[in-house]
UniProtKB/TrEMBL annotation:
One of its GO terms (cellular component) is extracellular space. Gene3D superfamilies: Gamma Fibrinogen, chain A, domain 1. It holds the Pfam family Fibrinogen_C. This is Fibrinogen C-terminal domain-containing protein. Residues 83-224 form the Fibrinogen C-terminal domain. InterPro entries: Fibrinogen-like_C, Fibrinogen_a/b/g_C_1, Fibrinogen_a/b/g_C_dom, Fibrinogen_C-term_domain.
Amino acid sequence: MDSLNKSVNTSEENTRNNFEEVKNQLISRMDNLQLQLTAETKIIQEKTQTELQQLGENKKTLDMLTDSIRNISIQRKFNTQLLHMMHPVSSCRQDFNVSGKLMIQIELNSEPFEVLCEQNKFDGGWTVIQHRFDGSIDFYRNWTEYRNGFGKLDGEFWLGLEYVHQLTKNRPHELLVEMKDFHGNYGYAKYDEFEIGSESEEYKLKKLGTFSGTAGDSMEYNKNQSLARSIETMTHIMVIVQRSNTGPGGTFASPVPI
């Protein structure tokens, strides 16, 4: 009996020792895993921090490149404007590169003035003489303002009857009127001749060629009529040309030369 008890005690002791050894092994493995996880987490954090710093540096570099490109673009635009001011052209047809503002000198001894050129529509070469699109400019003006022009070329504007006369008096021109209503419906009227007289002729619509287009021939009613006969008549003409009874918007333009 004593021998049996001794054997049982020995077996229990061995079992406890085995369990204790397994426990210690598991704790050691867990500690090792924890250390490994901590080390890997630190590596990931350091790598993430490095990548974030790199992204920050890349963003700074990208911002610097963007600023440089913007400055180059601004400088090129300035240089182009300066070149045009120093060496104005006689019409928008002499510069087909891009739509935008351009200095024009019609005659050798005439005063240059700035116009807006449209180079993308109807084969380009158009000098925009009126642009209305958002109602930001009041077009009910007096005679002097219609003679000299008003508004800004990068917004709504009327170029001025005297400028239109100077543009059209020495060489053949076409006239293009583009319109779009509040629903986006588009129409245009195109005439293969266009000329208005001088101020002494009260800026009479002297030439208006053959009509083509989709907007209706509203200008025919104004042929050989004086645009200076009265402010009300002049304003009425401008509204008819621009709106064509469908709502404001569009471009009123003339190319130089045919």
